[in-house]
Amino acid sequence: MKIIIAGVGKVGSILTKKLAAENHDVTIIDQNPDVISELVNVCDVMGVCGNGASYSVQQEAGSEGADLLIATTSGDEVNILACLVAKKLGVRHTIARVRNPEYEKQLRFMREELGLSMVINPEKATAREISRVLRFPSALKVDTFSKGRIELVEYRIGEQSSLSGVRLTDLYENTRAKVLICAVARGNEVFIPSGEFLLQTGDKIYVTASPQELEACFRHLGVFRAQARAVMIVGASKICYYLASELCSTGMSVKIIDSDEQKCVAMSERLPQALLIQGDGTDAELLHEEGVSQSDAFVSLTGLDEANIIMAMYASKQGVGKVVAKVNRQSFVDLVASGSMTDSIVSAGGITSELILRYVRAMQNGMASHVKTLHRIVGDRVEALEFGVPKGSPLVGVPFKDLNLKNDLLVAGIARSNGKIIIPSGQDSLHCGDSVIVVTTHTSLRDLSDILKK
C-alpha cells in the first residue's frame, strides 16, 4: 500500500520503520530535514521536507492516489487539517493522533463529519492498557479478543514457582481450567508449545482463556492477585488523568503525587475523587509517609524514564503488589524487561504505533480476510489474530485433528455466536459465525484458510 506519514517523531519513526519493513510504499513528511535524511537512508523510504498540512507539500508527497495518510505531528490541529487536506486530494483512509482531552467528546464528530478513519489518543490508549493490568495484577500485560470475551495474558514464571518443570499436559489436567498456553518466550527463543513442552523458571508464557477461567487457573496455581483497590500514581500527566478517571469510576482509591503545584491544583479540580499530594515522587521518605507499602498498585508516569524506573524498583522493594512504569526509550525497555526490574512496562509511543499498525494490517487484508483483531506479542515475533468464520468456509465442520495445520501455529480459542467460549481440542471444529483466535510465528497470515499447509 502507498502510505504517507506526516510527522516523524517517536511514533512516526516507529511506524516508518515497521511499515517499510513490511514492504509498504512509504513517504514521510516532516519540517526537520535531519530527521527526514536519517529515515530516508535507514529505511529506504521517500521523504519530503515541509508542513504536513500543506496542500502543495502533500501533492509533492504523492497524496493523490495514496491509500492512507497518518498524521502524527506534535499538534492536534495540524493532524486534523492534514487529514482533511488528504481527503480532498483523494486519500482513501486517514488517521490522526489527537491528544487534547478537550477534543475527546468530539471524536465521533471527527470520524463521521470530517471523514477521519481513525482518531487515536495515545495517552488514553496507554491509560486503558494500564487499567487492564491493574484489574488482573498477576499479568504483565493483557490483550483482549471478541469484545473482551477472550483474554491473552503475559505472565513470567518466577523462582520457586509451582509451574517450573511442569509439562503442559499435566498442567491442564491438574488445574482443570479451560486455558491454553499458546506461546513461550525463553531468552531469545520463542516456542509455540505442544502438550509435551516443559516450563522453566524465567519463561514468559502467554495464556488464552475467558476472564473467568484465567482467574480460576491462577487461583489454583496460587499466583492470583485480586484487583487493585488502592493505587498510587506519580506524575500528574494526561495519562494520569485518563487512568485516574477510569479507576475512580470503578470505586478505586487513587492518590496522585506531583511536584508541580499548578498541575496538582488543576488535577484536583478535574478529579475531586482523587487525593492530590504536592511533592517529589522520587523522595523515598515522601513515598513512605504517603503509604506506598500499603498500596495495592504503584504507577510511575513522569516524563523521565530513569525516574520512573527507579520509583518502580523502590515500590517493588516495598512489597507493592503491582508496579507499572512508563518507559519510552526502547533501550531502557529492553534493559528493564531483561532484568525483571518492574512488573509491567508501558510506552505511549509503542501502544499508539501498535494500534495504527493493527489498522493498517486490517486495511491490507481487506474485507475478504475476515480479520477482526491483531495483537503482536513476544517483541513482535508472534502474532495473535482473531478471524471471523464466514459462510462457505472449507474449515467449517472439520475436526481440528483432521486439518493439516501449519507448524508453529495454534488455534488458541473459539468464541461461538451464542457466547460460549471454547479452548479447542482435536475433536472440536469451527462453526459459521465463530470468532477464532490463531497464534503463530508466521507473520504472513491474511485469511483464515492460510492456517493450512499448502
Automatic annotation (TrEMBL):
GO (cellular component) term, any one: plasma membrane
> Which keywords fit this entry according to its UniProt record?
Ion transport, NAD, Potassium, Potassium transport, Transport
Answer whether the UniProt record assigns the keyword Transport to this protein: yes
A GO MF annotation of the entry reads: potassium ion transmembrane transporter activity
Q: Note the PROSITE patterns from the entry.
A: RCK_C, RCK_N
The lineage's top-level taxon is: Bacteria
tRNA processing among keywords? no
- The RCK C-terminal domain extends over 140-223, 372-454
- The UniProt record lists the RCK N-terminal domain at 1-120, 228-346
Q: What is this protein called?
A: Trk system potassium uptake protein TrkA
Q: Recite the lineage of the species.
A: Bacteria, Bacillati, Bacillota, Clostridia, Eubacteriales
